[in-house]
Structure formats: structure tokens, C-alpha cells
Design a protein that fits this description.
GIY-YIG endonuclease
Length: 182
């Protein structure tokens, strides 16, 4: 058992460590997990440094199986599991395809991977786009939520949405029409 004074100091020290780790991670949040490995490394070093300070203070306990070192490792695992949870940010794309062979033929869809989906359309794997291939991507929008992407796709496929799309891409269609005449 850790002596009562050391136990109280341990609680205060570890509380400060958790608060400092939380502040550090909140300030690094803008990096979008780019520095996650560096943050983990710094937290691990900090936990080991705290454990070694405890080991040097209480001469009775030493080595990796000592209570302070065990607590530091356990605390580090809790912090890494709860605070530094690395998640890959995944976007859902709503895309607009234009047929190269048939003038004015547009197709709206949503996907996670635009190049892969375009390849599927051009290979004829999609029943509704097979007769009009090859296709070009002329517009896409990115959404973090799948339901938002589905809702936008449904809207762009509607009458109002297709008119909005043609207004949004007005310059593209004008340039294409002008270039085809010259």
C-alpha cells in the first residue's frame, strides 16, 4: 500500500495530469488527428515521468510493478482510450455526372469514393447510366452526415433541384456551348 501522504499526493498529481492532458488535446483539436501519434507519445512520456517521480519519492516501491507506475500506466490507457480516440473523418459526396456522348444528359448520385464510383459508371456496372457512358464529373459536394448527402441527392434529382443545378453551373454550360460552336 502507498502511504497515506503519498496516496493523497498521487491523487492530486494524477488529477492535474488528466486536466493538463485534456487541455493539451483540446488545443491540438484543430490538427484533425494529424499529430495523434505525437500527442500519445508526449502523454506516455508524461505518465512515465510522473511514475518515476513517485518511485524516487517512495523508496519502498520501485520498478515497473510498483503501485505508482501501475497507476500511471492505467491512467495513460484510460486517457488514450477516452480522449485521444482517433477516428477517420469520412465524407459523403453528392456528385453530378455529365455524359460525354449525349449532350445535356446529367446524372446525380452520392458515394464515399468518387473515383471508384465514376469508374463503375464508365464500366457500365450501373443499369441507369450504362447506355449514356462515358461520363465526366462536373460537380460534387461533400457532407459529413450520410442523411444530409441523401437528402441533397434527392433534392438535386427533383425538378427544383435540377433547375438549381443548372443555375449553379450556368457558366460551365455556357462555356461548353460556346466552345462547341467555335
Amino acid at each position: 500500500m502507498i502511504r497515506r501522504a503519498n496516496r493523497r499526493f498521487a491523487t492530486l498529481e494524477y488529477t492535474a495530469f488528466v486536466q493538463e492532458a485534456g487541455k493539451h488535446l483540446r488545443t491540438k483539436k484543430e490538427d484533425k488527428y494529424a499529430n495523434a501519434r505525437a500527442i500519445k507519445k508526449r502523454l506516455r512520456q508524461k505518465a512515465y515521468r510522473i511514475a518515476n517521480e513517485f518511485n524516487s519519492r517512495s523508496h519502498r516501491y520501485g520498478g515497473p510493478n510498483s503501485p505508482p507506475f501501475y497507476i500511471a500506466n492505467h491512467l495513460l490507457q484510460l486517457i488514450l482510450c477516452q480522449v485521444v480516440k482517433i477516428q477517420k473523418v469520412m465524407f459523403y459526396y453528392v456528385y453530378v455526372l455529365e455524359s460525354r456522348r449525349f449532350d445535356g444528359k446529367l446524372y446525380v448520385g452520392y458515394t464515399i469514393n468518387i473515383p471508384k464510383r465514376l469508374k463503375e459508371h464508365n464500366q457500365g456496372l450501373n443499369f441507369s447510366t450504362k447506355p449514356f457512358r462515358p461520363w465526366n464529373v462536373i460537380h460534387y459536394e461533400a457532407y459529413l452526415n450520410k442523411l444530409d448527402a441523401e437528402r441533397r441527392e434527392k433534392y438535386l434529382k427533383s425538378n427544383h433541384g435540377s433547375r438549381l443545378l443548372k443555375r449553379m453551373l450556368k457558366e460551365y454550360f455556357y462555356d461548353k456551348k460556346y466552345r462547341s460552336k467555335n
